Amino acid sequence: MARISVLADDLSLTEPCLIEGFPGVGLVGKIAADHIVEEFEMTHYGNIYCDSVPKVAVYQEDNAKLHPPVRLYADEERDLLVLQSDVPIQPAAADSLAECLSGWFTDLDVMPLYLSGIPREKEQGHVPSLYGLGVGEGIDLISQAGIEAPSETGLVSGPTGVLLNAAVESDRVAVGLVVESDPRFPDPEAARVLIKKGIEPLADLEVPVDDLVDRAEQIRQAKERLAKRMQEANEESTQARPIGMYQ
């Protein structure tokens, strides 16, 4: 059973865009989500509880307050929500989360952006490619933002795949963004592409990313342990992968 505990019910949101940041390949979604929360100094809007989510408490640098591992942040001025997770999420937990979030999405008229990396070995200086996926009006939003459709047949797995599947099943508007990512290490460069070429035009935002690029090595080191855990638990890892025409 999953539930949302709203902490900042005084915030007013109108058809907000939600950026999902579950850990996955290259940790691109998490790096992007964490950066946006920090850059905009977003308000801790609420917590998401689910029986299948690891029962851990999270603390942050220079702050004694404890938090659950899956949280929501909000920015009233930008009509923006970010889902932040500090732990890998099993598909079973994502199933429960999808059921919990669906009603809440309807109540707030949320437009979700689901983020994923597709493993690609990259050469020095290569700019990662970004692809868009959509359900319902999400397809039009991708086209209007000038984001290319994928160049090969594939699937999105892990918790993000579960949430996208729920959107397809219920015919609820949703957008998926897939960026080429380093499968071995945290990939701030891919997260930058995700923000500038995907999140910005779709959510009508302008997100400073100089700090994200300048601190790339520091971010890699900070996220290295979580990235290793994601490699060891493929079923918990949000990722897109090609499947080819014949299986």
TrEMBL record:
<feature type="region of interest" description="Disordered">
    <location>
        <begin position="227"/>
        <end position="247"/>
    </location>
</feature>
<dbReference type="InterPro" id="IPR019151">
    <property type="entry name" value="Proteasome_assmbl_chaperone_2"/>
</dbReference>
<protein>
    <recommendedName>
        <fullName>Proteasome assembly chaperone family protein</fullName>
    </recommendedName>
</protein>
<dbReference type="Pfam" id="PF09754">
    <property type="entry name" value="PAC2"/>
</dbReference>
<dbReference type="InterPro" id="IPR038389">
    <property type="entry name" value="PSMG2_sf"/>
</dbReference>
